[in-house]
Amino acid sequence: MRILVLNCGSSSIKFALHDVKRDLVLARGLIEKIGEERQYLHYKTERHNLDKEIRAKTHSDGMKVMVGILLDKEYGVVKDLSEIDAVGHRVVHGGPFFQEPTILTEEVIEKIRECIPLAPLHNPANLVGILEAKKLFDKVPHVAVFDTAFHQTLPEEAFLYAIPYEYYEKCKIRRYGFHGTSHKYVSLRAAELLQRPIDELKMITCHLGNGVSLTAISGGKSIDTSMGFTPLEGLVMGTRCGDLDPGIVFYLQRTLGLSVDEVDEILNKRSGLLGISGISNDMRAIIDHAEKNHKRCQLALKIFTYRVKKYIGAYFAILGGLDALIFTAGIGENSPEVRRMICHGLEHLGIEIDDDRNQKIIGGMEGFINKPGAKTAILVIPTKEDKMIAYETYRVISGKRHGI
């Protein structure tokens, strides 16, 4: 079964064609800078690696470019669109409505539209992709896979904020959590590597990229997660501040005369690693400058790892123990130094990192980095969100249970 996975951003289309039964990615690509002066296609198959300038002023144009390259006589991987059996769509926010991947009916599309105020930067672009794809692939099922769905198992004490309850009832203000597809994938993969049923395991998954989130998983279900009503809450990120005294917002507005939009931009785009270091939001640059004795980069690195460590301790407490600690995403997969700093000092919790193992796991590698015999397994697992979306789509349209 061949499933096309789509992830549409405000100026981009990521796509991947999966052969689910053979566990193969036939092609993947990125169309970027849609609507800007110049647009580009990056496309890869087993035989080809193509980068070229294209014309795609709208998402509709971009979709046509995608179809054209998939059908191309030289670079394509299908001869006819009828060879594609379904389309799986990444949708960032499903609000309180969706706990599972869902067939995209008109009613579901309307609910996604209702969630736009909860994700104004993401859901509109996701919707554009859905509507354009349904025109091009009008004879196959389309499935929405929500970033928030995995976290719908949080108990009330974890997802409610201590503000007047009426705002939860009227405005849907609660913790939603994000990166759910990534957290679910790496937890399932960890259970496979540990050769244990997932319903027996207590895990903490650390999605460390430009966006950062941790999730406490018990028996395969998310019971707490660091991102909240928006992706701004939680850990220090590339440009996001993470946890913050809300009084700071009012203080900035009153003392500096800043508008709501100006404070929003500061907290979302000028804070985090970038704000502390003054150098970059890229952890590689932070580490490079820290090694050259740049004080603010050293500070950014310490703050980043300290906050992650603090959340691990909190989640250990609510889980009542820990079987596995999992690192994933760009930083989690590629930075032995960050992993070492996070794990150092957690030996009393059974978290004992093996420095030699840790140094060897980079660049998309998968493996264990804990000391032999340690109580808690520490794993590095590259996240494969598009693969998870493909398999979730397959599960929905086939009615089958499956792993990954």
Second CATH tier, the architecture of the largest domain: 2-Layer Sandwich
Order of helices and strands: EEEEEHEEHHEHHHEEEHHHHHEHHHEEH
Question: Which CATH top level class of the largest domain fits?
Answer: Alpha Beta
Classified in CATH, the superfamily of the largest domain is ATPase, nucleotide binding domain
Name the structural class.
Answer: alpha/beta
Largest sheet: 8 strands, mixed
Strand content is: 15-25%
Q: What share of the residues lie within helices?
A: 25-40%
Shape field: globular
Per CATH, what is the topology of the largest domain?
Answer: Nucleotidyltransferase, domain 5
Poorly predicted segments? none
Q: What number of domains? A: 2
The pLDDT mean sits at 94
C-alpha termini separation = 14 Å
Strand order of the largest sheet: 5-4-3-2-1-6-8-7
> What's the alpha carbon Rg, rounded to whole Å?
21 Å
What's the number of extended β-strand segments? 14
Count of helical regions? 15
Please characterize this protein's 3D structure.
The chain has an eight-stranded mixed sheet with strand order 5-4-3-2-1-6-8-7, sandwiched between helices. A six-stranded mixed sheet has the order 11-10-9-12-14-13, sandwiched between helices. The model has no long low-confidence stretch (mean pLDDT 94). The chain is 39% helix and 20% strand. The protein has helices at 59-71, 106-114, 123-136, 156-159, 165-171, 180-194, 247-256, 260-269, 272-277, 283-291, 295-319, 329-334, 336-343, 355-360, 385-398, and strands at residues 2-8, 12-19, 24-32, 39-45, 49-54, 86-91, 102-103, 142-146, 202-208, 212-218, 221-225, 324-328, 367-368, 377-380. The protein has two domains: 2-146, 2-Layer Sandwich (Nucleotidyltransferase, domain 5), CATH 3.30.420.40; 196-385, 2-Layer Sandwich (Nucleotidyltransferase, domain 5), CATH 3.30.420. By secondary structure, it is α/β, with parallel strands linked by helices. β2 (12-19) and β3 (24-32) form a beta hairpin.
